[in-house]
Specification:
The protein has 467 residues and is α/β, with parallel strands linked by helices. Helices cover 33% and strands 12% of the residues. It has 18 helices and 13 strands. The strands form four sheets. It has a seven-stranded parallel sheet. β6, α9 and β7 form a beta-alpha-beta unit. α5 packs across α6 and α6 crosses α7. The longest helix has 19 residues. The radius of gyration is 21 Å and the shape is globular.
Length: 467
């Protein structure tokens, strides 16, 4: 779902129909800051901040970022970039941002609300998860890696205990004591708080092998798994075996890249299937195979409650209606190195001419990686930054080929893109799933567009609302 496409409004709408509504937890600190800079016209952010248990922390963020009446065309202010040693202000902003999104999603109904994180953004995870838990999040999901440390992290945060999350540092040693990010809830909030609800943890993985690995040890065992196939939107696991590209530059996925559902079921953990599962028939088949349900993205991303700008959504729906909308798997776009699904839209960064015209820079840094420098200190690099800078930091030049600044592009998708000093606007890059069948059928039923509730009722018509 990218950044804030699955926002609190969308998650709330899904949860009100009795299903797990999931907010995207990626870069929520940036989202909160920019919503405040845009004036928080409807007051929703300030309403949530007023509910935060430590008023002084919320007030500091308001004082720093709120611009009553908006920016009037001025660039957004910078926010702290994720690091191994985040300053207090950075942790406060991340905790608050995740609290706000989850708190808003949970208001006015009894349905379950979850939050989805990327394992690749490790340095923000402790503060992000803690903020979501302060708001009573019901489930935490994590993919784009092997989230083996999350069960213990959630256990400790529920007790407001100091936590330490190991972080992958390129060039570091296996016993590298500095390769971790810490969060001390008591020091950060300075308050006596009651124990929190420990949310269910769902690991998003791509194979039965990873399910068996995570299940083998109670310390890393999730409460359930989401098995995401190669047709799912966003990041995909790389194909197994020797990389092969088709004539359009897409990674070629084969039978080995589809998990063995029977073997997943045999492990005994609750599981859901994702990727090409967004139709009533696919849901019925999935349940018949022993799964608990499906994860659906594309149909909700195109719904009225999604965070996509109205202009982008209309362009996508128009392409869906006339049969021209196409989603390709881009092997190079993501700085993570994972394949990434990209909706093909003229004028967006799916257009290679537009992509090459954008100056390379990395000023948000959510996907940058720490590395051990020659002097032993830790530095940070991103394949989407200027190539010479990336190479000077020890990166391989070929790893920078074709990379896109997803951080800036995905924020542009939801109307929060930066304006550069020369007046240039960041261009969007939209991700959807490769299987558009469900969305096409919804477009036939609802040619003027559809709501999230209509998606749920189409998929599971017999399920009653939770509110």
């Amino acid at each position: 779902m990218g950044v804030a496409v699955s926002s609190w409004r969308l998650a709330s709408a899904v949860a009100r129909r009795g299903q797990l509504g999931v907010v995207s937890g990626t870069a929520l600190d940036l989202v909160l800051a920019r919503r405040l800079e845009d004036g928080d016209a409807d007051g929703s952010v300030r309403r949530a901040l007023a509910a935060f248990p430590v008023r002084e922390v919320a007030q500091r963020v308001l004082d720093r970022y709120l611009r009553v009446g908006g920016r009037h065309g001025a660039p957004y202010r910078p926010v702290p970039r994720p690091s191994l040693r985040p300053r207090r202000a950075a942790q406060e902003l991340t905790v608050l941002a995740n609290f706000v999104e989850v708190w808003l999603a949970k208001q006015g109904h009894r349905g379950p609300v979850g939050v989805n994180y990327l394992e690749k953004i490790q340095m923000a995870t402790p503060a992000a998860a803690y903020g979501a838990m302060l708001a009573g999040v019901d489930a935490v999901l994590m993919g784009a890696g092997i989230p083996r440390h999350l069960p213990h992290l959630l256990d400790e945060l529920a007790k407001h205990r100091k936590v330490r999350l190991p972080v992958d540092v390129a060039g570091g040693r296996e016993d590298d004591e500095d390769a971790a990010v810490e969060l001390d809830p008591a020091d950060l909030l300075g308050a006596e708080l009651a124990d929190l609800h420990r949310p269910m943890f769902l690991a998003i993985v791509s194979s039965e092998v990873l399910v068996k690995y995570l299940d083998r040890d109670p310390k890393i065992r999730p409460d359930g798994v989401v098995i995401e196939g190669p047709r799912a939107g966003g990041h995909n696991a790389p194909p197994r075996g020797r990389p092969v590209l088709d004539d359009r530059g897409q990674p070629v996925f084969g039978p080995r890249d589809d998990a063995d559902v029977a073997k997943v079921a045999a492990v005994g953990l609750p599981f859901w299937l994702a990727g090409g599962r967004g139709t009533p028939e696919a849901l019925r088949d999935t349940l018949a195979a022993g799964a608990n349900g499906v994860q659906v993205g594309t149909a909700f991303a195109l719904s009225r409650e999604s965070g996509l700008t109205p202009a982008l959504r209309e362009r996508l729906l128009s392409g869906l209606a006339d049969g021209t909308l196409e989603v390709l798997t881009d092997a190079a776009a993501s700085p993570t190195g994972f394949p990434f699904k990209v909706a093909q839209l003229d004028g967006s960064l799916s257009d290679l001419a537009v992509r090459s015209a954008r100056p390379r820079l990395c000023d948000l840094g959510f996907l940058r990686s720490p590395y051990r420098k020659g002097d032993g200190d830790v530095g940070y690099r991103c394949p989407a930054e200027p190539v010479a800078v990336f190479v000077r930091k020890g990166g391989a030049e070929h790893d920078a080929d074709g990379r896109v600044c997803l951080c800036n592009a995905l924020t542009a998708d939801v109307g929060l893109g930066q304006i550069r000093p020369d007046g240039a606007h960041e261009e969007p890059l939209v991700t959807l799933g490769a299987d558009l069948d469900g969305a096409r059928r919804l477009a036939e039923l609802h040619p003027e567009g559809w709501t999230a509730a209509q998606v749920v009722d189409w998929l599971v018509p017999e399920r009653a609302p939770a509110a």
